[in-house]
């Protein structure tokens, strides 16, 4: 036997003549014309392998007529128990190697190919077939809670916690109650509380100040010598041109032998002379910062004063800002000429007493 034959044994598969089971053994690279002693590992029967055939041990091996003439009868080798044991061990190793090769081939044919699913917020990359994972989950992308939704992941929709409470803005004239965070509305607007338009102010809501339309403006009457221009809608009066100092309104047709002097302060004054019965006998106008002297009728009078700035005539005097006063003494204008200084002076000769409009009228 050459060296290559020893290094490359030939495996042979046959049925055992004794038990009929399939056995595998090595031909050791020898020529098929040389007999090989083989022992069945199952029933331990001995047999001879020759010319690719298997024969029971010690039986006659058939040969062809040509073999009988050309070559002697093959010699059947006797093997020792140790050789027999070595051959059994070798056969077992060969069978083990063949089994491992078969298992490897089976595993390769049936090998698992992973089908990977992408990672999610709470799961890593995962095989949908076997469940194997790799890497880490992506993690949630949390959005803050709102009035209607809890903390929510913008990727997968997972939630935690509860929605926050609404922050309400009370209803107004035009808007219902609503949440300033999310805009949720409840109820209805309160509606406006309108104040009617005036000459100088349009129709206006007294709650929110909203204005509708325009102010209609005044409707002025014509001014006369004694009456100012008055709005027929609202009654507002326009100041008249300031009269000349000493302008007489009552008693201009009377005999006036006496004199009355008025030294006015920073305000103009309308002067009335009333008799003991309270009847106005004489009246005139004196300008502010002026000394005005007028002729008055003879008699005993109590002198009244109306003070102010803007003149509205002998009926309305100086408007709503008018102040009224009088000299308490009943003065005799038939014998004396009187001077009234209408601001505080040292050693003054009369006491000015405030009165109301009804007494002045």
Describe, in plain words, how this protein is organized in 3D.
This protein is of the alpha+beta class. Among the domains are: 93 residues, no CATH class; 113 residues, Immunoglobulin-like. It is 12% helix and 29% strand. It is built from four helices and 27 strands. Strands 18, 20, 21, 23, 24, 25 and 27 form a seven-stranded antiparallel β-sheet that branches. Strands 3-4-5 form a three-stranded antiparallel β-sheet. A three-stranded antiparallel β-sheet has the order 6-7-8, with no helix packed on it. The radius of gyration is 70 Å and the shape is rod-shaped. The N terminus is likely disordered.
Index terms:
361 residues; alpha+beta; three-stranded antiparallel sheet; 4 helices; 27 strands; disordered N terminus
Task: Label the overall shape.
Answer: rod-shaped
Corresponding CATH architecture of the domain at 248-360: Sandwich
Class of secondary structure makeup: alpha+beta
Number of DSSP E strands: 27
- Amount of helix: 10-25%
Quaternary: single chain
Radius of gyration: 70 Å
Determine the number of helices (DSSP H or I, runs of at least 4 residues). 4
How much of the sequence lies in strands comes to: 25-35%
CATH class of the domain at 248-360: Mainly Beta
Segments where pLDDT lies below 50 for 5+ residues?
A: 1-7, 59-71
Return the CATH topology of the domain at 248-360: Immunoglobulin-like
Compute the separation of the termini in Å: 164 Å
Mean pLDDT over all positions: 84
Q: Sheet bearing the most strands, described?
A: 7 strands, antiparallel
